[in-house]
Design brief:
The structure is a homodimer.
Chain A: H1 8-23, E1 30-34, H2 36-44, E2 54-58, H3 69-75, H4 80-89, E3 96-98, H5 102-113, E4 123-128, E5 136-139, H6 149-167, E6 173-177, H7 188-198, E7 204-209, H8 211-216, E8 221-223, H9 226-251, H10 255-272, E9 283-286, E10 292-294, H11 301-304
């Protein structure tokens, strides 16, 4: 219920996923946790003839994007978020997926479901488009504003394993986000994390990468503290908005501009599709001892799928 | 000599500036510090009939973008950078302008020229384009990878005074770059800096701003540590490169795409002009006790002017 288009996109995405799983002969069942009436209403408008297997678990409260994570998980025990995670814990579901309040999902998952042994802090990654044909996984993008070098080292291990298992990349290249390529560059956190990273021969650590290397796709994984990562992610997400605003302002200046923009937009839209963070799927909360996927609040049905 | 197009853009920019100063009846004189033969060669190709007042100070060495700041300022004493700053110190010039190695300019200026009393660390700002009609000044973008709360507080004061004096804004709005708007958000550095900033009634401190607020132009000045600022700046600078790469790749896919892109590009170029960091002028190294302006390595003649 927490996503910006919930539960519509969630239901549409689940239907898309159901078809894909069915085609690959992997039986799968969806459990929608949330306001039953709203969910039924949307389901009634979908084509369920494909034999869609689902159930609904009623949870009438909603943790919103504005809710403070630590408070809401205590006060909204009957929210879709908490009920869904509890369902996962009790074994009633094998995975939990949400496009809701990231902080609340993270806090609830960590407190209710617990961490993997050896992991200091769970971490949230985000895929960034690149100039190459594959995106870069940046983590942490906001789970831990304050990090110790050891956390960054663990992020690298978790990101590496995740990309290997999901994309099949044998040995994902790991870069440490820093202000220069040389190993002597950066703040104490980056310097100490570098030292830890280079000592593990199982990690394909390529050294420091800079801000420009994220979009250049210089490494498969980019490691940073959650403060830096969150600011870069939100900056990146605002680029499309900025561009739209500048295009509109240009179009409004004259009839000729308006025509030129109208001619330009369809092509530009195709090119910019890969820049649109709504198109990217969710990423797991790495480090919790279960399967929790967090999507962008604006996740499209495709992203949910 | 240190800029990517030096000394051509520097000379062309100086000529443009000379005309502008002359038109406003402010006599001004330029001193080119660098490889004399190269400078003379370029000057000979310019139209100097406007009565251009200049002199040349010979300095044969060049500190490159790849040179390590602390080392190069010790080993390249006869570089244009060091000779120019020494000239400024001796009173032979009233200001020093460079599009060269930022770290080297900063280190040399701080060591040779000294800091303003009360300033812990000099700081480098950079203008970012915004959705509004004025850019945002982000500082620090790389002078200090490791910051104390007090440094950020001083950056706010310096940025505020600078914008007030240069743009005429009476009370520039200052935002603290953070992972959330609430005062309880962020790492220890941001939390402590917030506390210092809110206590000064002379500062128009509007609280925390997020990554997306830079391009939104929510504040006139954005304060952050030099690690975060540098990564965001380099990320931002890479957007145009990324976009160009995606456009080229789209055009290469078919003749129809190629035509669509050819039709689109002139309009897009006009719209993106404001995104191009080469178009932005240099900013002063704030906190040193003299006038030192640092421009982007790719500074156009207009930026130099």
């Amino acid at each position: 219920m927490g996503g910006d288009f919930a539960p519509l996109h969630e239901i549409q995405g689940a239907l898309m996923a159901y078809k894909a799983f069915n085609n690959s002969n992997t039986p799968v069942e969806f459990i929608f946790v949330g306001r039953e009436a709203v969910i039924r209403d949307i389901l009634n408008k979908q084509n369920l003839d494909i034999g869609f297997r689902y159930s609904i678990v009623s949870a009438e409260e909603v943790i919103t994007m504005e809710d403070e994570a630590a408070i809401s998980i205590r006060t909204k025990k009957n929210s879709s978020l908490i009920c869904g995670i509890q369902l996962h814990k009790s074994g009633g579901a094998d995975a939990f997926i949400s496009a809701g309040n990231t902080g609340a999902v993270m806090t609830a998952a960590t407190l209710i479901l617990g961490r993997i042994k050896g992991v200091s802090r769970p971490v949230i990654g985000s895929f960034f488009p690149t100039m190459k044909d594959k995106p870069t996984l940046v983590l942490d993008v906001g789970a831990n504003a304050e990090c110790k070098p050891k956390f960054l080292y663990e992020f690298a291990i978790m990101g590496s394993i995740y990309l290997r298992e999901i994309t099949g990349l044998k040995s994902p290249k790991i870069g440490l986000l820093n202000v220069g390529e040389e190993r002597t560059k950066g703040n104490t956190l980056a310097l100490d994390a570098y030292h830890l990273l280079e000592q593990n021969p199982k990690l394909n650590f390529i050294g420091n990468v800079e801000g420009r290397d994220i979009l250049a796709g210089s490494s498969d994984v980019v490691i940073c503290d959650g403060f830096t990562g969150n600011i870069v992610l939100k900056f990146a997400e605002s680029i499309i908005t900025m561009l739209k605003s500048k295009i509109q302002s240009h179009a409004s200046k004259s009839i000729i501009n308006k025509i030129a923009v109208a001619v330009m937009v369809p092509t530009l839209r195709k090119i910019l599709k890969k820049f649109d963070y709504q198109e990217y799927c969710g990423v797991p909360l790495l480090g919790v001892n279960v399967v929790v996927i967090i999507g962008h609040g604006k996740s499209s049905p495709l992203a949910i799928k």
